[in-house]
Design brief:
Blueprint (H helix, E strand, L loop, with lengths): L1 H28 L3 E2 L1 H11 L1 H21 L5 E9 L20 E13 L3 H67 L5 H35 L9 E2 L14 H11 L1 H21 L5 E14 L7 E10 L7 H67 L5 H35 L3
Parallel strand pairs: 1-4
Antiparallel strand pairs: 2-3, 3-5, 5-6
Length: 436
């Protein structure tokens, strides 16, 4: 008896341990939860497009330093050693005959731009505007990624909702088929009813397969936007309230908001400012350039003809362009045309923004009204299904009426789920269009 009791206790302990292990494995295998805000944060941290935009912005900031270097002094150290044939001159390749002396010397040369009458200053302002434009491009890229993540997130939520409906549909159709199969075996229902029930069950299984494939596709798209190469599965959490707020109805006010908040429009505005500054700089090419130069050094090893052991000189130079084959005038004309083109690009984008904001606002309003319609459709289809099931059980209707009611109820559930997430997607697109 004691051995039997010990065996029972051991069996119970083993069962408890197996149950605990299975629960731990199930909990460890459960996909992590993910909210919309967390998805946006992951995308901003890991999406390579955002890194590219940030690096390009940092590179453009260095262009400002490159252009500004023309206003700062330049200094270079020279170390020169020459061995030459005594008394020789360089007689070919030039109009003069310079004498080349044996020497070993070192020195420093300093140059400084005094003025070019505004050309360098305009180039610096143009580079600064381009840096600001690139910063706005970085913001626009981030907004694009966030919009894509939001759309992918809501698409994944919709696919998961449809998958849940499909699973419930398969379970309900399976129960109906089993029930009708039992009634058919008892000669209470015809084989035609069983055939219809099996057809509906097969259609539900096809719906489930399509829903599973769509859910996997949307999750793969979401992972790509999050900057992940892994096939990570998430349990997406919808933090939106049950009663979604209506969309804004002041469309023209939204258009004006977009004009002041869209980063891509701000980037084009800065590019237009940069083009204007560059245009002014190109017109300044025809002006003189005044620069100063100073040099000093020593020649410890030298030919006898070089009498001094050190040298030094300072001077100024004025360069006045006279004729260069119409190069400067062509460059100025090119800059004028490019500045005008940049202005037209700003105008074109403003018109596109106004159109997109209006369309997005109207789409959001239509999607919001669609939620109420699909909710009413779902309520009516649920009621119709209850009545059809009751009538079928009482023998007052046939399997066709029940099948139609089941199909209508399934379509209504899918339509309601899609309408809810389509409205949230429409709100996201509208917020993107107005720069928020």
């Amino acid at each position: 008896m004691n051995g039997f009791i010990r065996t029972c206790i051991s069996g119970i302990a083993l069962a408890v341990a197996c149950t605990s292990m299975n629960s731990q494995q199930a909990s460890s295998a459960a996909p992590p939860s993910l909210t919309l805000a967390e998805a946006e944060h992951l995308a901003i941290e890991h999406n390579p497009r955002i890194d590219v935009a940030r690096l390009l912005q940092l590179a453009q900031a260095q262009v400002v330093r490159e252009v500004r270097s023309s206003e700062l002094p330049g200094a270079s150290v020279n170390l020169t050693a020459v061995d030459s044939h005594n008394g020789s001159r360089v007689t070919a390749g030039g109009l003069n005959n310079p004498i080349v002396y044996q020497r070993a010397a070192g020195g420093i040369t300093v140059s400084q731009l005094i003025t070019d009458f505004g050309r360098t200053h305009n180039l610096i302002l143009s580079a600064q505007s381009q840096a600001k434009a690139q910063l706005e491009v970085q913001r626009a890229t981030t907004a694009d990624i966030v919009l894509a993540v939001d759309q992918a997130f809501y698409n994944a939520l919709a696919s998961q909702a449809v998958l849940k409906v499909a699973e419930q549909t398969v379970a309900a159709r399976q129960a109906t088929a089993d029930q009708i199969g039992a009634l058919t075996a008892a000669k209470l229902k015809s084989s035609l009813d069983l055939s219809f029930a099996n057809v509906e069950l097969s259609q539900a299984k096809l719906l489930l397969l399509d829903a599973q494939n769509a859910e996997q596709d949307t999750m793969a798209n979401l992972n790509a936007l999050l900057g992940s190469e892994q096939d990570q599965r998430y349990s997406l959490l919808d933090s939106a309230p049950a009663n979604l707020p209506p969309p804004p109805d002041q469309i023209e006010a939204l258009v004006q908001t977009a004009f002041g908040a869209r980063p891509d429009l701000a980037a084009l505005n800065e590019s237009y400012v940069a083009a204007n500054r560059f245009r002014a700089a190109e017109h300044d090419l025809s002006r003189p350039t005044v620069s100063a130069l100073g040099t000093a050094g020593g020649t410890p090893i030298r030919a006898d003809q070089i009498t001094s052991s050190w040298y030094g000189a300072v001077g100024a130079n004025v360069s006045i362009p006279i004729f260069n084959g119409f190069l400067y005038s062509a460059r100025a004309r090119e800059a004028d045309l490019r500045a005008t083109a940049a202005q037209q690009e700003v105008r074109n984008l403003r018109e596109s923004i106004a159109r997109d904001v209006r369309i997005s606002a109207l789409s959001a309003q239509a999607a919001f009204h669609r939620i109420d319609v699909t909710r009413q459709l779902l309520d009516q289809s649920n009621l119709a299904l209850d009545l059809a099931q009751t009538r079928y059980k009482l023998g007052l209707s046939g399997i066709v009426e029940l099948s139609q009611a089941q199909l209508a109820q399934t379509q209504a559930e899918i339509a309601y789920a899609n309408a809810r997430y389509a409205y949230q997607t429409a709100l996201t697109i509208l917020n993107f269009q107005i720069g928020q």
